[in-house]
Amino acid sequence: MCTLEKRGNLFFLTLTGGDDHRLGPDCIDSILSAISQIKSQATPGSVLITTAQGTKYFSNGFDLAWARSADSKSGAVARLGQMVASFKPVVAELISLPMPTIAALPGHAAAGGFLFALSHDYILMRRDRGVLYMSEVDLGLPFPDYFAAAMRAKIGSVLARRDVMLKGAKIKGDEAVRMGIAESAHDNAENTLEAAVRLAEQLAKRKWNGEVYAEIRKSMFPDLCSVLGITQKVITPKL
């Protein structure tokens, strides 16, 4: 589950609990509800910071234990498919959100949790603990189409994408910065969140038109937007 807090122009979406913040149906619904609230309250200067309670995990991906608890193998596959389908709108909403977005990771972000972070404009990590990890190749799971599209859109280096998708590399903070995936790495979870707030405050001062910001973001990732079913709006320039 998650909570939503607004402090001035900054929205804080926080994955709650002391566990590994698995993205099960209830958690996904909670995130979508929070994003809907954020969109309804957006103004020029708004910025979203997404983070998580605890110091070990940002999110460990889909709730595979819930999927495997189904009565049959086909039921487990259906439950996994349900989570894959229901998480797609989360990515779409973040890509089209009318404000800058920052993911402040207090720990590991794996599989769907990695994609959740990657769907933000900026990723800030801690260098002392926590990795980015796409576990699909190790688990024997194919990438959903929008996962692969997001990797292509957000990870510019072919070699970096190879290591993420085909090698299952576990990427620490400083390495993620060198690979162009993360914006910065910090000494601990507290410093990471503090840096995210500083960045958010700098961005908020620009007071950009959120609708224009979202359309520019969409224009950067046409393939991803096509897979997500996002269309661009025509905005009349204000001169």
Describe the structure.
This protein has 239 residues and is of the alpha/beta class. It contains 11 helices and 10 strands. A 6-stranded mixed beta sheet has the order 1-2-3-5-7-10, with helices on both faces. The longest helix is centred in the middle third of the chain and has 23 residues. The chain is globular and about 60 Å long.
Set out the fold topology:
Layout: E1 2-7, E2 10-15, H1 25-41, E3 47-52, E4 57-59, H2 64-68, H3 73-95, E5 101-104, E6 108-110, H4 112-118, E7 122-126, E8 132-133, H5 136-139, H6 145-154, H7 158-165, E9 170-171, H8 173-178, E10 184-186, H9 189-204, H10 210-220, H11 222-228
Parallel strand pairs: 2-3, 3-5, 4-6, 5-7, 6-8, 7-10
Antiparallel strand pairs: 1-2, 8-9
Radius of gyration: 17 Å
Which of globular, elongated, flat, extended, rod-shaped describes the shape? globular
Order of helices and strands: EEHEEHHEEHEEHHHEHEHHH
Alpha-carbon distance between the two ends: 43 Å
Structural class: alpha/beta
Which assembly state applies to the chains in this document?
A: single chain
Measured by DSSP, the beta-strand proportion falls in 15-25%
Read across the widest sheet, the strand sequence of neighbours is 1-2-3-5-7-10
- Characterize the biggest β-sheet: 6 strands, mixed
Question: What would the average pLDDT be, to the nearest integer?
Answer: 96
Fraction of residues in H or I helices: 40-55%
Stretches where pLDDT is under 50 for at least 5 consecutive residues are none
Count of DSSP H/I helices: 11
β-strand number: 10
